[in-house]
Amino acid sequence: MKFIPYPVLGLLLFSAPTVFAATPKTASPVKIKPTQVGKEPYRFNGAVLTDQFRGSGFCAWDNHTFFSAAHVLFDTTWLAPPRWYPAANAAQLDETTAIQSRGYYRWAEYSSLVASSASDGFSQDVILGYSFEKLIKGKAAKINLNGYKDLRKRAKTLITGYPADNLYIEESIEGYFMHKTGPIVTPYVSYDDKALTTTLVTTGHGNSGGPIWTKNSRGGWSAAGVLVGGLPSESVVYAFSKDINSLTRAVTPVIQPIIDEPVSSDKVGASSVFFPYYKEKQIPDGKHEWTVFKIGVDAFPEGAAVEQVALSLDIRTKHRGDLQVVLAGPGGFQALVHNEGGNVKNNLIFNSRDYSADFTGITANGEWSLLVQDRLKGDISTLKSIVLEIAVGDTVVVPPTP
């Protein structure tokens, strides 16, 4: 089953003729006032874009992380991390505000669910994305871990985001103006596991991934779930519960100032995983032999194929022209990182340099290594850190012969 970017649920839930009334009972998206964009809960919202799809998202839990719908980032395979546009509210997006996210975590079984004709994937239709830049100013939104329970009560709820059309009243929605549906009091009922559905709430294409808010004890809004589907007078949300902590635990090591070891979970998959090496070591001076720094990679499903590789490196030296550096992957595949260039310069330091072309398609799990030589005497070189970033797709391949 190929998952379309903005699900239309008429075939998935039930089909019914749309009736257009002068005063519809259904709560439909309406523009918020421009003065409200910087206020809660609207300031937590952002537009989420890939090269193929448009969706909504919201900064919650940490100001480096955002939630959205998984189907915004999935089209038979997982797409590259999306761009985040904070608090957009205009006909066109301001490209100067775009933040390129670095990755995202999701339920590992999601892709299998949507490939099955027996499931639409809504029960796991959520991702937690991250960036090394702050996504919004100030604190992130709070998560309502009782969202699954609270949404099934007659509580006041609010959905916000960036719909591209209005499916109920056929009102044209153009651009990226922030909209809200509600506040409204309507019960949600069980649909599939953590997916809940309600009638009399309409959203539009593009609003997928936007938050559904509930009131918290202080009278403010907390994120109770993610909008994952809609059609006239009906919406589906992925509701939060304590199991969402699996996603936050997985992203925690990545958004720290110093990247920790990745967290492995049977339930959680990632678009990319960081493998750090922080054991400081001096490179033998003037010796034509490799010092090998081994990095074990075992965080991916068996046979998962590499899609992207990036390397961050910090070697301190007075003369980087002495250095040769090679990155090696499983099966003998190699990429030349540095070959005695920059004779008059010192340290060899860079962040997130892309080496995908050298390793795409090989098996991700296995022994990776950084090989370093200091070929001329007189200048001491010290390795401070290595951070290897690997992203995989859903394809499982037999590694090609080097």
Structural summary, described in words:
It is a single chain. The chain has 402 residues and is mainly beta. Helices cover 5% and strands 39% of the residues. The chain contains four helices and 27 strands. The chain has helices at 110-115, 147-150, 245-251, 356-359; strands spanning 30-31, 45-49, 54-59, 65-68, 74-75, 77-78, 83-86, 99-100, 103-107, 127-130, 156-161, 179-185, 189-192, 195-199, 211-215, 221-231, 234-239, 268-270, 273-277, 281-283, 291-297, 304-316, 323-328, 334-339, 348-354, 366-374, 381-396. The chain has an eight-stranded antiparallel beta sheet with strand order 1-12-11-15-16-17-14-13. The longest helix is centred in the middle third of the chain and has 7 residues, at 245-251. It starts with 29 loop residues before the first strand and ends in a 6-residue tail after the last strand. Mean pLDDT is 88; it is low at 1-22.
Describe the protein's topology:
Elements lengths: L29 E2 L13 E5 L4 E6 L5 E4 L5 E2 L1 E2 L4 E4 L12 E2 L2 E5 L2 H6 L11 E4 L16 H4 L5 E6 L17 E7 L3 E4 L2 E5 L11 E5 L5 E11 L2 E6 L5 H7 L16 E3 L2 E5 L3 E3 L7 E7 L6 E13 L6 E6 L5 E6 L8 E7 L1 H4 L6 E9 L6 E16 L6
Antiparallel strand pairs: 1-12, 2-3, 2-7, 3-4, 4-10, 5-6, 7-8, 9-10, 9-18, 11-12, 11-15, 13-14, 14-17, 15-16, 16-17, 19-27, 20-27, 21-26, 22-25, 22-27, 23-24, 23-26
